Amino acid sequence: MLRIAVLISGGGSNLLSLIEMQDKDDYQIDIVISDRQCKGISIAKRFGISSVIIDKKMHKNDLFKTIDKHLNNIDLVVLAGFLSIVDTNFIKKWKGKIINIHPSLLPKYGGKGMYGIHVHEAVIANKEKESGCTVHYVTEVIDGGDIIMQARVAVKEDDTPETLQKRVLLEEHRILPETVKQLAKTI
Ligand code: GRF
């Protein structure tokens, strides 16, 4: 059974999908860590999962060292809407054991500035016919690590960034737990 830590910064809907699909045969969420006050932390509390806020403003230089201290016995770190840029030493230490969910079909619409609604705005501005989401390993290259799983979503003529974001998010909720379940078989 894979013991995971989920790192968040926002609404925590992907965290919720991981909680709902949690299965003792596959994986267990041991801890939820956020880098700021956010709604996702209350979701962890509601389900009795241990959680901690390590405020990025108070931990400017030691954010990831402090996070790392909470990762005892963790097999996999899952970034689920975590907005801080991950520190190189932390990435090196967790290489192959840290994944991220991104709301586009990487390698398209990834990298600096491509997060949240900005991704969907760019997809619509470029009149793309399809978008989607990607679960990938985290490496030093932002959104550039090996792709593990993707889901495709058609872009409709009348889509706004917000309507597209909602449909992509539904697919994120499906493939993130699915990826973790898949990794539970191999890690
Ligand atoms: C998701 O779109 C995820 O792909 C991105 O941030 C968003 C987080 O949403 N990295 P939530 O906090 O899980 O609701």
From TrEMBL:
Pfam families on file: Formyl_trans_N
EC assignment: 2.1.2.2
Catalytic residues as annotated in Swiss-Prot or TrEMBL: 102
Pathway: Purine metabolism; IMP biosynthesis via de novo pathway; N(2)-formyl-N(1)-(5-phospho-D-ribosyl)glycinamide from N(1)-(5-phospho-D-ribosyl)glycinamide (10-formyl THF route): step 1/1
Principal EC category: transferase
Top-level taxon in the UniProt lineage: Bacteria
Similarity annotation: Belongs to the GART family.
Protein name, per record: Phosphoribosylglycinamide formyltransferase
Originating species: Brachyspira murdochii
Name of the gene: purN
